[in-house]
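QA checklist item 7 of 12: single-chain prediction sanity check.
[x] sequence parsed
[x] length recorded as 393
[x] structure emitted
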Amino acid sequence: MTESHVDSKEFEFPLVMRQSTNSFFGNLSPRNPSLAFRMRRVGMLILITWVPLLLLAILSGYAGRGIVDVPLLHDPGLYGRFLFVLPLLELAEVIVAISLPVQARQFLESELVPERDRPRFDAAVNKVVQLRSSFTPEILIAILALCLAITFRLFLFPESTSNWEVHNSVRSPAGWWYALISLPILFFFLLRWMWIYLLWSIFLFRVSRLDLQLSPTHPDHAGGLGFLGWGVASFSVVLMALSAMFSSGFYYEILHNKGSVYDFKYHMVVFVVIAVAILYTPLLVFFGRLSRCRFTGLLDFGSLVLRYDRKFEEKWIERKSAETDESLLGSSDIQSLADIASAYEHVNDMWPVPFDTKGFGILIVASILPLIPLVATEVPLQEILKKLAEMMV
């Protein structure tokens, strides 16, 4: 009896949108939330994380200048974390929730997964979806986020607190709300994205163990897996949010601790390199399979090219064949020779991992863009724009 599988058109992969059979949580997070719903969620997050800090700081007199040196309204880190980073982490689900199912479905639609391995592919899908659908990991993530926020803010780095948080060795109400509510919520979103990316990495690892039907001559130079190299760019919004979080922290140091953007140049470079490397790390699981595909392709096409070259030389160079009277002009042999050489070059140019230059460029831009305003602390923005305008004319 043949096994029945879900048709690729009906294939679902809700790795970002967690499926829930609980009606209460299902109402809080519908299966296909609209943009309006997400904007309401963003507003709710700001009301929980940012607005109470402002109100408590106003009541304590720590919102504006007067009592403390660094009031809440002069802390760029707060603006970055809760008015930009947190909304981005929420809205990033829109892009990633579309991209990951498309990539997973592509394994089936492009027939990369042979029919005999379809049960193992379905098992890999079901495993990660089951883990994502469970509430246990998110409860653990929430507990971990709270523990990290308390540990970092109250014990490991208490000296990094602003005046509006701790004044005269006394933590303000806004400072307590920040450590116990606002920061844990931010950490929860960050850790949840790490969990989603870990599940996606597990899925790719299990798929890489299948007998994938790769093509060494595929024009994407990745045996047909090039869509994974482009798909990494879907995480660019998450990467931008992380970059903005670090950028706001750097700006705080420059603004209030008399620092310079040059003091953080290595920090910025290291962040970009590490962040982009982490995003591409799961694709390394295809290194062995793509390398074998390239090696086998080079052997097979190398033999084919050699046989064709010999026949071509016999016919047109050594003139040994019976078709010596055929005119070289208009012959398709030369075009065939060029075509087979082009196919060999496709094999030779294969990437050892799925890679796309445009996707890579998007990630670099996303990681650097939030850091650009830091340059304005050294060079006025109008001078930068003026110089760019001069270069255009």
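[x] summary fact logged: The first helix runs from residue 23 to 28.
[ ] second reviewer sign-off
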